[in-house]
Amino acid sequence: MLDLLNQINNVLWGYCLIAALVGCGLWFTWRTRFVQFRMFPEMLRLLTDSAGKPKGGERHISSFQAFAVSLASRVGTGNLAGVATAIAVGGPGAVFWMWVTALVGAATAFVESTLGQLFKQHHSDSFIGGPAYYIQRGLHCRWMAVLFAVLITVTFGLANNSVQTNTICGAIEGAFGWSPTVMGVLLVVLTLSIIFGGIQRIARVSSILVPVMAVGYLILAVVIIVMNIQQLPHVLKVIVTSAFGLEQAVGGMVGAAIMNGVKRGLFSNEAGEGSAPNAAATAAVTHPVKQGLIQALGVFTDTLVVCSCTAFIILISGLYEVPELNGIMLTQRALESEVGAWGPVFVAVAIFLFAYSSMIGNYYYGEANVRFMTDSPVVMTVYRILSGGVMVMFGALVTLEVVWSMIDFCMALLTACNLVAIILLGRYAFRLLDDYRQQKRQGVKDPTFHRSQLPELEQDIVCWE
């Protein structure tokens, strides 16, 4: 069964999704006039936007909190274990293709998150939205919306959480010798205690964990890179030559580098996958474009900063050429070779924070889509138990190859569904961006949007009164 799943993944990723992801990214980049580069200063400025004024009993999520929830899901095992797996399987050239995925994918992330904001709707104490919502209201295609809701719930709420747990248990076992079973039980208790608290608790926890874990890891990475600064030109040369080199082409490694770089890049930054719009929709902002820009920044932060740090550490160590090292073990051994015996311990703590924050972020993506399909409290309780309990424990007990093969298959189906939707609806994101830019040119410091500005959608947009 595992061999069959791997063969299907090779077909899906080798012949379909790579071209679709890069093609969509290039189209959105061109159509938005390179929004991810031209409006980078605006992205940074918007991080300080506070939540909009609440109405009634609503407790709004700020731009930064929504950014933190999405980054909590983005910054996880993909940044430590995923990068290591990409390099071990596809060679150093995979890093280059991860960068390409991020640079063009940021425009895709902008479009999907802007649409998530446009078609969001009021929930009990905040906002809720995502691709399932913009598919139903923008495309009027209920079956496709339900299909996406099912796929993202399975991919993030269930399969992705097993990957995070598997990586945590592997790192903890390697550093402290703890049994995966014991660690799995502990994770179940911790995860359930958070996810039963709802999006408000998830946002609070994420807005604390994400900055702490990211800053700590980046400081260590920068120290290691500075200590080995003389090797940096060689590392960059190896990345580029491995991505295009004749030797790699003859050995079939260019194809492996591209496939693994794009796969692990997508797993890490999620651009085009349809996950981040679920978090983007929760923010209270005055214009949908604001959160689109924030989420584009998240792609840069995840891949160009955090993933690159891991890649440099591994390539500086030279241990990526050791056949038996893969996944989180490769990252741990690489760090140990640079800073000593406490390296694996640091990675174990870092991966716990990275992956645990991803688990609660992943859970929320599933919750938003379960609520799209049904309001049944019983169904929601069952989903919480499956996501925070059953699949967390499952990930602790199975092998690395099983969880990665499972998530690759789920990601492929999910991404294909979302790409179709955002290609068809992208014109609305382009119009919103033009409106935002025009208001900024007119001297408006805080651009606003009203649904009457898109008269053909006025009946489909339930917020933005």
Strand order of the largest sheet: 1-2
Q: How many beta strands in the DSSP annotation?
A: 2
Separate helix tally? 19
Low-confidence stretches: 53-58, 246-252
C-alpha-based Rg, rounded: 21 Å
The main pleated sheet reads as: 2 strands, antiparallel
Helix content: over 70%
How does the helix and strand content classify structurally?
Answer: mainly alpha
Q: How many angstroms does the end-to-end distance come to?
A: 51 Å
- The percentage of residues in β strands lies in under 5%
Mean pLDDT: 81
Overall spatial form: globular
Query: What is the N-to-C order of secondary-structure elements (H for helix, E for strand)?
Result: HHHHHHEEHHHHHHHHHHHHH
Provide structural commentary.
The chain has 465 residues and is mostly helical. It is built from 19 helices and two strands. α4 crosses α10. The chain is globular, with a radius of gyration of 21 Å. About 3% of the residues have low confidence.
